[in-house]
Amino acid sequence: MKHHLLSSAAAASLIGSLPLETRSAVPTDEFAEAIAAVEELRAGFTGFQTRAEQQLGGIADITARLDDLETRMNRPGGSGGGDDVTLEHRAFSNFLRLGDNRMDAEEVRALVVGDDTKGGYLAPQEFVAEVVKGLIEISPVRQAARVGSTSAGGVILPKRTGRPTAHWVGEDEERQETGSTYGQLEIPVHEAACYVDVSLRLLEDSAINVDAEVASDLVEEFGRIEGPAFINGDGVKKPEGFMQAAGIQEFNNGHAANIQPDALIKMMYSLPAAYRNSGSWMMNGTTLGIVRTLKDGQGNYLWQPSYQAGQPSTLLGRPVIDAVDMANIAADAFPIAFGDFNRAYRIYDRVQLSILRDPYTQASKGLVRFHARRRVGGGTVLGEALRKLKMAA
């Protein structure tokens, strides 16, 4: 057994500090050993405490470094992600913030020049993808229709113009031709343009992600003009909306002012089952508020709220899409559409997005104006998959 002994002077000092009756009851050597053990434990604890404080200080330093790294990664063009941030993306971010006249030569060379007749630079794929993603989130038609991309000025699709016709024949009778006939349907890609103003203070603040701010504004502006075009566009310099397309069957409501529940049921079941079973209703919020009060002949509401998170409410068992650009209820108007929009309507985005930085037009207001242009096309490819309700007797 290892003994821990104090020096005679230390032991004498400690023992001398005790009361007389305690000193006389405890042998000097045993008392000294106990005191030594306590001192050793105290020294060990002090060393442990010192090491723990050093480790905690190291953790705090790591946390501070991570916070600093996160801040730098969130900055536009920040290289916190190393090779994950492409030169083109970093160059485009600095172009938005500084302009090409204040950028490094390497970054200027990385910018892709857009259409010479319009000026500006093409946005990188990451920026374009963010804008398109935002459009899908806010556009009701994009949520229902089939959306694709193209690099051409138009999309040509095959369209069946004649169905095959079968005939009953005898054992040795000549068979007649029964093949389908096809034509072509072209969806032209139109140009949309807008501009957004960003303050100089926002551009100068290195902690603000200017890419996200500009992308958010572009989404709002492009979404605002796309919605009416996809629904009611006439096809002149804009997509043709499905409510204006030929070949979509109209269904009379039976009343010019009040929506009839029986008309909705009949219109829904007038669609072939292949389209009906995957169909959706589309109407604006005002019409939706009226439809929610409708009941069938047994007093049951046609509208059924969703009781499961993430699932839409339904009308006659099919989901409802709230589209602000659908017509209001009025005589001879078409306030409601129903059908399989994914099969019936196509939207094609031109991949390129061009942005021109204009620091002069709004300079007196402390703003920089960004002019943006993109191209999008839309058209009805299968009118038989849709029905629209007309407010007429």
- The 3D shape can be described as extended
In this structure, how is the largest beta sheet organized?
A: 7 strands, mixed
Number of domains: 2
The number of helical elements comes to: 13
Q: Cα distance, first to last residue?
A: 109 Å
In CATH, the homologous superfamily of the largest domain goes by the name Major capsid protein gp5
Q: In terms of per-residue confidence, which ranges show pLDDT below 50 for 5 or more consecutive residues?
A: 1-8, 75-84
Return the average pLDDT rounded to an integer. Answer: 79
Q: What is the radius of gyration computed over CA atoms, rounded to a whole number of angstroms?
A: 37 Å
Strand count: 15
Order of helices and strands: HHHHHEEHHEEEEHHEHHEHEEEEHEEE
How does the helix and strand content classify structurally? alpha+beta
The percentage of residues in β strands lies in 15-25%
CATH architecture of the largest domain: 2-Layer Sandwich
Walk across the major sheet and give the strand order.
Answer: 7-15-12-8-11-10-9
Task: Output the CATH topology of the largest domain.
Answer: Major capsid protein gp5 fold
Instruction: Tell me the name of the CATH class of the largest domain.
Output: Alpha Beta
Helix content: 25-40%
Oligomer: single chain
